[in-house]
Design a protein that fits this description.
- By secondary structure, the chain is an alpha+beta fold.
- The protein is built from 5 helices and 5 strands; from the N terminus they run ααβββαββαα.
- A 5-stranded antiparallel β-sheet has the order 1-2-3-5-4, sandwiched between helices.
- A hairpin with a 3-residue loop joins β1 and β2 (33-37).
C-alpha cells in the first residue's frame, strides 16, 4: 500500500511513495507500515517505524497498522541487537509539537540502540553527535537484518 504518486509535503509520505528504497532509506516495507532510517541519527542504527497512512495521532491509525507497528518494533529489536549488540534500546513517539514531534502530522516510532556511557561530553556539553558509520553502511547492515529475518 503506497501513498499517492503526487509529490507529498510529508517526508514519510514522500519516502513511502518513492521507488528508490535505498535513496529514501527504507529498510523494510510491510503491509500497513514501513521501517526507515533516520537521516539525522542520534546513534548508528536509529530507525523509525511509520504507517503508510498520513495520521497525526495513534487513535487515528487503523488498528491493523498499530498492531503491525508493534510487530515491527519486535522484529527491529532483533535486527538492532544482531547488528549492533547494544546495551539497551530506546523507543519513543512524540504526539504533537508540544510533545517534541519534529514531524507532528505523521506518527512514527523512533528506535535507537544505546550503549553504557554513550552520552559523553560531546553530546551533553558540546551538543555534537559522533556517528561512527555512514548512513550507507547502516542501511546495508539493517536491510540485511530484515532480509535475513524475512526468509
Amino acid at each position: 500500500m503506497k501513498a499517492s504518486r503526487e509529490k507529498p509535503d510529508c517526508i514519510f509520505c514522500a519516502a513511502a511513495a518513492s521507488d528508490g528504497d535505498d535513496e529514501a532509506l527504507i529498510v523494510h516495507r510491510a503491509r500497513h507500515c514501513f521501517v526507515i532510517l533516520n537521516r539525522y541519527p542520534y546513534t548508528s542504527g536509529h530507525l523509525m517505524i511509520a504507517p503508510y497512512a498520513h495520521v497525526a495521532r495513534l487513535n487515528q491509525a487503523a488498528p491493523e497498522a498499530v498492531a503491525e507497528m508493534m510487530e515491527l518494533l519486535r522484529v527491529s529489536e532483533l535486527v538492532l541487537e544482531d547488528a549492533y549488540k547494544p546495551d539497551g534500546i530506546n523507543l519513543g513517539m512524540n504526539l504533537g509539537r508540544a510533545a517534541g514531534a519534529g514531524i507532528a502530522e505523521h506518527i512514527h516510532m523512533h528506535m535507537l540502540p544505546r550503549w553504557s556511557g554513550d552520552a559523553n561530553f560531546m553530546t551533553s556539553v558540546a551538543d555534537t553527535r559522533i556517528i561512527p558509520e555512514s548512513l550507507n553502511d547502516t542501511y546495508s547492515k539493517i536491510k540485511r537484518g530484515f532480509e535475513a529475518l524475512s526468509k
